[in-house]
Amino acid sequence: MPGKIKIGILKARNLPIMDRSSESSDAFVEVRFGNDNYYKTPVYKKSLDPEWNSRFFFEVEEDEIQEEPLQIRVLDHDTYSSHDAIGKVYIDLKPLLNPNGPTALNGFFPIFDTLHGIRGDIKVQARLEILSDCNEYRKSSSGVQFFTSSRIPEGYVLQNFCGFVEEMVLNDDPEYQWIDKIRAPRASNEARQKLFTKLSGEVQRRIGLKVLDIEANCVLGYQQYFDLEGEFGIVVRGIGTAANIIRQTGNIKSQLFPEISKHSKISPNRLTKKISSESDLNHQNLINKQENQNGYSISEKMEYPFLTLQQYPSGFIKSVCGIVCSRSVKLLNSNNEFDDLESRDKWWIEIRNEIRSHMKSLDCHVVLGYTETKSICEDVCVLSATGTAALFNEAFFANPLKRIDENSSEKCSICHVPYDETELPFPVALSKCAVCGQGQVPDVIFTSIQPLPEIETIGRGSLIKAIVSRPRKKSSGEISAKMISDYMPFMEYELHRQLLGKLKIKGMNMLYGLKVQISIGENLLMGIAEATACFAAPLPKPILPKIINDKMNREFKEIESLKKLLIDEMQRNIDFYGLDFKLSSSTIEQTDSENDSKALLKIELDDYREKENIYQLMDSAAKKNILACSTEYMPGIEFNSNLQMFTSIYRCEAKLVQMNIKKFNEIFDYILEGLNYKFRKYKNYVLANLSTDTSLFDDDHAMIILTGSCLTYGESNIDIKNNVEITNLSYVPNARIERYLGLVNLFLIRESTQIKENGGLSGFMHCFITEVLALVRAHVLSLDGNALVSFKMTECVLLDNPHRNQGQCLINVTGDAVRIVK
Amino acid sequence: MGTVDVCIGNNLIIDFDIFSLWIDGFTIEQCKTEIVKKDLSVRNCKETIIFRDIMDNYHNFNRLEQYLQIPCRLREQLMFQVSEEMIEKLVQCYYQYNPYVMREILNHKLTHKQRKDLDDIADKTETRVRSCRRQFDNLRQIIRILDDLKGPILRNIEEYFCLPRSLAEDYTAIVFLARNQFDLSKRKLSYLVLDDFIYCVNQMISNWPMSNSFEHDSDFNRDFLLSFKELKILSEKEFIDEHKRLVLHGMAKVLNNNMTKDCRCLILFDELFKDLSRSLIDIAYSLNHSKDMKDLFFDLFERFIEPCKDVKLIKNEVTIFLDEYRKKAHLVPDISKEYPKFSHTFDKYFTTISNCIIQMYH
Questions:
Q1: By the CB < 8 Å criterion, does B66 face chain A?
Q2: What is the reported pTM?
Q3: How far apart are CA A470 and CA A375, in angstroms?
């Protein structure tokens, strides 16, 4: 249905000097929306702070608003030659479509030029008047709210989940079109910015339609990715969870999540003595089965029972089983009968089906914390999907009042395995739950979700990182794809082995927020896994990895000293993280084969290299005293205030083939140490929600981006006076989110041909990221917000040409604009 | 070290130790050495990590600099999130100057050529060239902005540069010196430090009325300066002798504690009186010529301070003399008959000038 956008272009300030002789500018503004709407303000002569006070309106279609950004272009008037561009502003009007969102948009926006960066600010107002559309065949899907935060928004109540939604669009990348050869860099960059913004709008509109189809009212945990496939085009993918939520009425105090459970000291032997009778066990299995079937039938309704959220209301999860993951290597230019988009669609469907079958084989009926990622190198790409297989409480939606009592009864049940002991889906060592003594629990649990407050943890958590890298032969096409594909299982195994080993030596038994990233370079393959480890009370205490020495000739002494080293390290970790158990003699000396099978981890000393591996499992000295985690919450610590969100970018120039795991580990340690140094003035802080993004370029450099938040605990509230808080967490410590104002999704390109003059590539990147954050803040402010949560830099590509002193960087950032109350 | 190695946060966190080193023109490498020297706690850290932290700070400072040059824009810019207190602190640090450097800068006209020749000043004052350049640019920037503004200089400086009162007052004086191109470069004046000039100029600014017209807001009111012409009457034959008698008489009364010294002092002033008095009146008489105004400090030195110093008069004696000179001028008989507003004009002129002389007498 038609609508009307009322726009006001009021004034600008601090414009750059465009006319040297008069040291001022003759600025005017062009406003465009879609293909048909155009407006031009009069020229304001000789001023760096012009005032136009132009007000006008455009008549538009609703679906246009969902796709098109409002384009504002500031120019310097020139009588004799063509006008000079000062810069542009793209404004997304989607937040205004939301019935609960802001009604108008008003504020100063930095004027951004792809070649010069921010050049002054312009004050813009926009208001939307629209007639709602009830037509069944409508194109627009306004009213569906999108949240990138991977949890139920604060102040809302979840009514039900309606399913997994995804959409994908494919387009040519303007950078790779023939016209780019004759186009000026600015025009090319702007064409890309415009197209990408539009595509992301289109993806959201289409997802919105699907959401309306299945009668949901919002998308939670929305993830959007730009796959830059080079000459094959650009794919914009969006996935999310369709759900129905309603605003909580009244002033209900939002439940602070998670509640830190008091460290109840469980004597390690008390509960294990309790022997449950056979019948008990059978009985429980029976119930399990019944419920399983019941749950299965409901989740059957959804084609893919995948939920992209990482945090769930308490009582929702019944049992967590473990990570499910699927990867597939594809060739981008394979000429099959389908068109490009269709073939890509098929690829993802294959993967999702695989995930679903994995889930089923674990007797689970839902996948939580689901994500899909894609790594591309020339014409080969690796598609990955992971999530946590789990069971959810059917009763949760049926009986909202019962929710709370139910979960309070048996918190440990989440850890209990959902499958029968006699029909194990894979070899696994089960033992009795250390809390209730009845359920069967596995040795360790790996999950991709945020820490569950229901599961009691002891002590503090810790960041665990595993890196695998392997050189590969330079090749292309089919051969290259096959090689990567062949190596994938080994990589997966090696990552898993490292994670497990590190977890054991840490004295912990549970992983939250596990994220694996695969990077492919021209001649290197790399995998990085990060997670937050903690000691979950229901799971058994970890036992020391066993060192097996097959060769008799190895000196006994050496083995003993290695053992000693491991024990010392483990003891140190137990003390440091406050895990509160002793390495009893039984855990140290595993006697026979019976224990062996349980130990899951053996270190075999076959050759010299294996010894290195033992050292690798221990934290380097640098990392030892830094508290860090990859999740939004740190088990065992309650945060006070958000000190700073940081983005660390490191690019190393090295022959990548020569890079090994040790070298990569050194780089990460170096980055962490740098952060530690920056925050040295604060005593109690945690580097939370750490996330690394690694990309390998050609064969000579790698870029590592580490983002995270520095949070303080146990200190008096440090009040940081700022206008807009930006955080990559989905909440703001010590503050309540009052209102969600819409998605902020910016796509920006910056190019410079004066890299050396402006502090080198470091200076260039520093400047660009500062500008990006400034733009994000301006968008939040214009929506009357004061914070942005779930900030994420989904894309950051830096290309450079040192001989031409040139560099180009492309960044996509997303987040939820909110209003918070402290 | 990587080719890109940066860390950026949403809140601007500034390490003021590094900031002040940056202001003083330290390179990153020098800054690192300095930090390691100063802060014992960082000794255990790897040098590359300290280096990287400093580099991050420097990147921020380099971006901040464009706003620091027009501090009122710091409040409205969106690039950095800075609190009001932080703005004050940053600006105050940035506009801090080294008096020796500033003194040297004021010796010459603020031209582009001088900017290139700051090396000499840097050598002479043992400051870094970059620091000199910043101080030079700051002054030039302030003058440039003030050129477009109406009203009192002090208020404009406070408003546009967000400077604290005392610093703004100093700058008012410095701008005044620079704008009126007072000649401070004479070798004989080289013993005077910047504070002497600031004091003198502030004396003039606060006691003498300023011109009201927009273009000449750092000039004194012309009519006022012209009125000094009338003071010439004091050096006329019929009055000067009487004035001398009164002054010496008055001085004898005030002095009288150390006979030999006092006698010497009185004898000296007896000899010098006519020259000194005539010089003081001549200076007043000539102030309305802008060229003579430029030489004010030199004239004061050459025609008053130097003769006194030559005969080794001490500061206290000169102070007493000037005081008596001022007081007794009103008592010279019949002088107000000749020029009715004499007392008023004379006081206006002489209090200020005598304060200047006393400040310069060291």
A1: no
A2: 0.87
A3: 16
B6, B49, B78: residue with CB nearest A766: B6
B58 near B74, Cβ under 8 Å?
no
Q: Which among A647, A674, A759 has the least Cβ separation from residue B8?
A: A647
H/E run at residue B184: none
Residues A797, B39: Cα–Cα separation, whole Å: 37
Please name the amino acid found at residue A795.
E
Q: Shortest CB distance from B49 goes to which of A646, A673, A798? A: A673
- The CA distance from B181 to the nearest CA of chain A, in Å, is 26
Question: CB of A163 within 8 A of CB of A779?
Answer: no
Distance CA A340, CA A347 (A): 11
Interface contacts (A, B; CB < 8 Å): 122
Chain A residues lying within 8 Å of B81, measured CB to CB: 722-724, 777
Other CB atoms closer than 10 Å to residue B318's CB: what's the count?
21
Contact B46 A675 (CB under 8 A): no
Q: Are A474 and A501 in contact (CB under 8 A)?
A: no
Nearest CA to A159 among A484, A403, A489? Answer: A403
Reading chain B (362 residues) residue by residue, the pLDDT tens digits are 678 889 998 888 888 999 999 998 899 899 998 888 888 777 778 888 899 899 999 999 998 998 898 888 888 888 888 888 888 899 999 999 998 888 888 888 888 777 887 888 888 888 888 889 899 999 988 888 888 777 788 888 888 888 888 899 899 889 888 888 888 888 888 888 888 889 988 888 888 877 665 455 567 777 788 888 777 777 777 788 888 888 888 888 777 666 777 778 888 888 888 888 888 888 888 887 877 788 888 888 888 888 888 888 888 888 888 888 888 877 777 777 777 777 888 888 888 888 888 888 88
What gap in Å lies between CA A352 and CA A819, rounded to an integer?
36
CB A464 within 8 A of CB A531: yes
Residue written as tokens 């007072």?
B182
- Pairing relation of β-strands A317-331 and A380-392? antiparallel
The alpha carbon of A507 is separated from its chain's Cα centroid by a whole number of angstroms, namely 27
- Our CA-based measurement puts residue A750 at a distance from the nearest CA of chain B, in whole angstroms, of 16
Are residues A755 and B47 in contact, defined by beta-carbon separation less than 8 angstroms?
A: no
3-state SS track over A458-519:
EEEEEEEEEEEEEECCCCCHHHHHHHHHHHHHHHHHHHHHHHHHHHHHHCCCEEEEEEEEEE
Q: What are phi and psi of A42, to 5 degrees?
A: -65, 165
Pairing outcome for strands A639-653 and A602-604? unpaired
Contact B4 A770 (CB under 8 A): no
ipTM: 0.84
Q: Do A645 and B48 touch (CB under 8 A)?
A: no
Residue B63: list chain A partners with CB under 8 A.
Answer: 766-767, 770
- A489: distance to nearest CA of chain B, Å? 32
Grouping H, G, I as helix, E, B as strand and the rest as coil, residue A127 is: strand
Cβ pair A678:B5 closer than 8 A: no
Instruction: Render pLDDT for A487-503 as a digit per residue (tens, 0 to 9).
Output: 889 899 889 888 888 88
